[in-house]
Structures are given as C-alpha cells and as structure tokens.
Amino acid sequence: MRRRHVGRPRADGSRNEGHPRDEIIAVASRLFSEHGVARTTMSEIARRSGLRQSSVYYHFKDRDQILVEIVSVANRVILEHLERVTADGGSAAERLYRLLRFDARQMCRFAFDINEIYRLGALQDERFADFWNERQELNDAVAALIAEGIADGALREVDPTLTALVLLSNDEGTQNWFRSMGEFGQVGGDHYDPEDIATFVADLALAGLLRDRDQVDHLRARALELDPRD
Hints:
Elements: H1 20-35, H2 42-49, H3 53-59, H4 63-88, H5 92-109, H6 114-123, H7 129-151, H8 160-184, H9 194-207, H10 216-226
C-alpha cells in the first residue's frame, strides 16, 4: 500500500497536498536564484512556502542543508546522463561531445550561480562531501574519455586530467555570462538559448582536441540524434 504523505498545516491554516519537503526545495531554489544563497533566509523560505518556520526546520536543519540537497540532484542528473552515454556506446570522441554538450546545457539552466556553490562548499567540506565526490567522479569520467580518445588516435596528445578540468570549467564559465546577460539585460542576451550554446561549446571543445576537425560535424549530428532538443 502506497504511503500517503500528509503535509503539516500551512501558516495560513491550509494543508499542503504534496510533500512539504519537495515544496521547500522548490521554493528555496527559486529564492536562491532570485536573491543568491547568502541573502536567502529560512524565514523567507517558510513565508514563500506558506509554511510555519517550525515545519521548515522539521525537514531541514538550516538553509545550507537545503542547498546540499539541491546541488546533489544537479550532480546526479549529469552522472545519470553519463550512464546513458556509456550504455549507448560509440567512439570516445562521440561520448565526450555528448557529455560536454549536456553539461553545458544543464549549467545554463541551473537555477543559481555554480561559483556560489563552490564558495560555500569549500567552507563546509564535510557537509558537501557527496557533492565534491560526485564532481570528482565527473572529472575522472571526462579524463577517462579523453585518454581513450588519445589511445584510439582520434584526439591529440594532451594531459587528460588537466584537459577535463578545463573543459568542465568552460561549461561553468558559460553559465556565468549566460546568467549575466539574462539578469542585466545585456545586448544579445535574448538571442541565445541553452541548446544552441551547449552545442557551440561542445563544437569548440572537440574542435580543439580532434586530430581531424572535420569530424565535428559528424559528432554534432550524432549528439542531436541521440540527445534531441527538449
């Protein structure tokens, strides 16, 4: 028999029909995006959720625990895509292109500044341990794909670990200017969408690594076939 989650009463006396934990996460994510993590308080999360503060604290010890939950979900999304890419097979270059394209797209869509996550995570290593472990898993996976591509002759001789760090940092850097254009209304900001940006970022990455740059068109076509726009 399916267990029914009964929400605690809201501050206005109504009752939440869904799971309050999920609602708290959704509201916190929006507030983190609008105001930044540091300027978001538990009292504001409770107010926007329509819950009493005691209800929020029942599910989460503090704001940073909510943040850890959100970023863990974001990490799992890219690692799950890695599993799909691996299961589909294909050359190392093809898998690398697909992974980088997906990561860049997710970065552009991520609700708040990844650099703020890193700053907070660096101050709280223990609480963010799973986050750092998952990021390392992603770094290692990208480095392994690069090493495989070098071994099969498709990619130039480079340091796989350093290259993986640079490529993933490039995805994160793309998020910075994409968010800034939307936030500050810079000229041209409304002419780009995450899908086009992600494809362009993957094109640039592989063009710089492939021995035969003409293969970029093939990799792009294959990625668009297996990971269509959504």
